[in-house]
Structures are given as C-alpha cells and as structure tokens.
Amino acid sequence: MNRRGALIIAAAALLTGCAGTPAALRPQAAKAVETKGYLSGSLIQALADAVPPPPVAGSPVDLTDKARSARFKALEDGDRWLLATAHAELRPPLALQHFDCALGVRLGSAATPNLNRLMQRLFDDSDAAAELVKARGFRARPVGDDPERRPCQRVTEAGRKTASYPSGSSTVATVYGEAFAALEPERATEARRIAHEMGLSRLVCGMHYPSDVAAGEVLGKAVFDAAAATPGFDADLTAARAELTAVRATGLTSPGCASERLALATPLP
Questions:
Q1: Domain residue spans in the chain?
Q2: Which of 150, 129, 147, 98 is closest to 227 using CA atoms?
Q3: pLDDT level of residue 167 (50, 70, 90 thresholds)
Q4: In the CATH scheme, what is the code of domain 3-16+35-264?
Q5: Measuring CA to CA, which residue among 18, 64, 262, 24 is closest to residue 165?
C-alpha cells in the first residue's frame, strides 16, 4: 500500500464520529453558561472576559492572518490535509484518540469511563468559555470570508457564517493536551505538541486564522489551570490515570502512527 492509501485509511479510522456538526460550528447566539464541567458560570465568564477582542478588520494583524491563511490552500488534499480532517473530531471519547501516538497507547482498547468523564467535563468548560468570547465580538472564518474556500470537513452554509475568534477547537485541544500532560508528565511534551498540531489543523482546514488559534490556546491553558484548582479534580485525575495505566498494559498502539508522523512532517506555510 502506498503512503497516501495508508493516510486515507488512518484518517478514516479517526473520523468514525465526524459526520456531525462540530460544537465549534454551532450558531453563535449568546446563551446562558451551563456548569456541567468543573467551573462555575461566573468563573467561565471571567476567563472569557480576559480574552482580548479579535483583530480589527484591515489591521496589520488581520492582514497578516489573511495572507498566511491563503497560503494554506496549497495543502489541500495532501497528507496534512487528511490529518486535519481527522482532527475535526473534538468530542470525547473519539477525540482522545488523537493523542494515541503521543502517548504510545491505543485509547479505546479498554474501558476508560473516568478518563472520558474527566475530558468531557473539561470539554464543557472550554467550549462554554470559547462560545462566550465568540458571542462578544464577531470575526468571520476564512471559509466565510472566501465562499470558494474548501474546508477539509463538511460545513453547511450556516456553519461558514459562524464566528472564528477564538478557535474553540484550539481551546479544547489545549485543555486535552494539558490534561494528558498532567496524567503522564513524562510525555507532556508530546501531548502538548499534538494539542498544538490540532490547532494548526484548523488553519489547514480554512476554519480559523492564526490569531484565532493563538487566542484559543491561551484560553485553553487558563481553563485547564482553573479546573485543576477545583475540589475533586485531583481525585478525578487519579482515577483517570489508573485507567490510562491499564490501557498501556494492553500493549496495543495505534496502527496510524507512521502515517501521522509523515503528515506532521509536512512543512507549513
């Protein structure tokens, strides 16, 4: 099998749950903060309020963002593009498998209810914070600014018109990366790298501009730090760590790691 065939198979394996509309593409109407995660509504609001507004249209930052975003079109249909289609899946437990190669395991090879619950709560906190920022100040997505721009995922016309800043995908990915870094400190560098690559995938997909991703990463780190300071978080982390140890004991690893390494070796514009 050639390299491209292997990449398609690897991407398909990761895309099992990607048919639905990602949370980041929901309509951007303001909504009450739900507290399904670790953080109170008031703390989520405070974290959102600390995020600066999006770049002003026509400003140097905005123009630099748009110039770089246009260069990412050169990656369409290539190896990195295929990986970005897989990274579009953000919800646990499927999204956690993006970290298989970084952790040297195969998540999904054993039951991990505590790990899934931990990550779901972190997802809820980070998604809520990002949505509040989006509702505060609208910035169009690259695929919204350019109706001819090809996304690497299925996006409706309404989805093209949703807000780009900050990248909720990058916020969520960063929270996952920080959580895995806390679960396995010896693999923290690798976990954080994949979280960052998930953010970069949103540039490849034409779904966000660089400063959207950068803001999402800062917000994600703040959300994780706040969640980690709440009562009960350490106990949840300990329970999840035990499950991750059990997964590692199976000895199974992802068959897509070689393809992932090839895709991540693609130079980005």
A1: 3-16+35-264
A2: 129
A3: very high
A4: 1.20.144.10
A5: 24
